[in-house]
Amino acid sequence: MEQSVTPKTAFLRGSRDALPFLLVVGPFALLFGVVGAEAGLNLAEVMGFSVLVIAGASQFAALQVMSENAPTIIVILTALAVNLRMAMYSASLTPYLGKAPIWKRALAAYFMVDQAYTLSQIKFEMEPDLSVSARLAYYLGTVVPIAPFWYILTYVGAVAGTKIPPEFALDFALPITFIAMIAPALRTIAHSAAAVTSVIVALLMAWMPYGTGLLVAAVVAMAVGAQIELWMARRPGTGAQG
C-alpha cells in the first residue's frame, strides 16, 4: 500500500503539508530582518545569518547577546544551546533516513528546521512502510515552501523593515510558531517533564548575564528528560511512551 507511494507524490505531499507554516514563517523572517538591521548588521550579514544558519530561534538568541556586547564564546554557546534540539531531531530521524546516500543526508541536515522535522516525524510514524527515497522526498518537500520564503522575507525585513507599521506586531510569530510545533510533540512524560523543567529553570536563571541562564535550562531539561526516559524504559511492562 504505502510502498507504492512514489518520491514525486511524497514530495508534493510534503510541500502541501508545509504551506500552513508560511503564515508564521513569513512574519518570523520579516522580524529577524528588521531586528538584524536595527542591531547594526548590514544586509550581507543579515542574509548570511538566515542562509548559513537557517535557524530562526538561535539567530534571535545570538543577535540578542551580540547586542549586549557579550563575548564571542557566549554568542556561540548561546546559539548552540538553542540549536541542541537539532541534534535530537537528527537522532530521531536517523532510523528513517539513515540509509540515504551521505550527500542526501547532508542536504537534509542543512535544511533541518523545526517545521520539516515535525511534519516528517509525524508522517514517518503514521506511514512506516514508506521507502527511504519517499521519506527523503517528503522531508525535502516540506522545505520547498519554507526555505525560499524565509530567505526572501528576511531580505524584505532587512531592506524595508523600518517601514512596516508597528501595529502589525510581527513579534507574535516566534511564540506562535513554537507553541504550534511543541504542543503536539508533548506526547510522553519525558517530553512534558523536559519542557516544564526548561521553563522553570530558565525563569529561575533569568538573572544570569548575557542570557546564559538559557544554557543552564537546556542542559538541565535534557538531563531530566533523558533520566525519565531511562526510568520509564526500565519499568516492567512499560516503554518510553506514557
TrEMBL record:
Segments crossing the lipid bilayer: 21-41, 136-156, 168-186, 192-225
The UniProt record lists the keyword Cytoplasm: no
Keywords: Cell membrane, Membrane, Transmembrane, Transmembrane helix, Transport
Main subcellular location of this protein, as a coarse class: membrane
Subcellular location: Cell membrane
Highest taxon in the source lineage: Bacteria
InterPro entries on file: Brnchd-chn_aa_trnsp_permease
Keyword Flavoprotein: no
Similarity-based family: Belongs to the AzlC family.
PANTHER family in the cross-refs: INNER MEMBRANE PROTEIN YGAZ
Name used for this protein in its record: AzlC family ABC transporter permease
